[in-house]
Amino acid sequence: MPNVDIAVDADLQQLFELPSCVDITLPSASGLSVQLPTGGALTAFADISKGIPTDCSMTFSLMLQIAPFLGSIACLLKVLKLLKPLVDIIQNLPMPPVGALVEFGEAAAGLAPCLLVPTPAAIIPFILDLLCLILKVLKCFLDQMKSLIKVLGPLTLQLNDAQQSGNSALVSTLQCAQQNAQTQAGQIMNSLGPVGVLLELAGPLFGIAGVPAITLPSLGSASDVASLQSTVQSIDGVVTTVQSVIDSLGGCPA
Question: Is 55 helix (H, G, I), strand (E, B) or coil?
């Protein structure tokens, strides 16, 4: 059957044209952090449950972390408040100023509840809740990665077929889709960075609670299906470890 060219309106012709990859390329969110007065830093979490992270979502993630930090340093501030009168007392021994003794007594009374913090009884409930939260994040990560693998696998085959057949328009479209899937995979893998930092920071608390240290493995490339499958297997192993520790502590709340 012969091909027949049919003239169409310019506006209609524009609707049939494939969009440029530049117009539909997924954004890459920049990393954000806040330096803390205690010497550490808070890093923004990429919330993969809400799609591809953006600078706005990363900013709100960081803001949500600052409030708990301010609450967590309450005991630290009480310790610092205790140090000034203590220094005055030591420097003026054997006759310390009465004012320093009174100030020290008041600061010590305010610090008393904090002295129970570095004990297993106080640490274990926190460690359990933290691990339950991390377990959910890891499972969410695995769900997202497995979905991407199901997308990237067929895309690779379709792209090879299109290249062999010389269909340049289809090749361009599939390459753009592949690039977006790889970008999404890279962002999802980056989302585990703060989880690794969190596990590292919680290491001393794990020791107090008698829990073995848990670390995340190095993640591979996001450029091919084989690397993504290897990453999934590695994180599956971490999930098994975390679940085992959680079970030993009594399990996550229903």
Answer: helix
pTM above 0.85, yes or no: no
Owner of token pair 């959680």 = 246
Q: How far lies 73's CA from each of 66, 68, 79, 85, 199, in Å?
A: 11, 9, 10, 20, 19
Q: Where are the beta strands (DSSP E) in 33-185?
A: 33-35, 41-43
Q: What is the per-residue pLDDT across 87-128, written as a single tens digit (0 to 9) for each? A: 888 888 888 888 888 888 888 888 777 777 777 777 888 889
Domain limits of the chain?
75-116, 119-248
33 DSSP β-pair partners: 43
Please tell me the distance from the alpha carbon of residue 142 to that of residue 195, in angstroms, as a whole number.
14
State how far the Cα of 52 lies from the Cα of 75, in Å rounded to an integer. Answer: 37
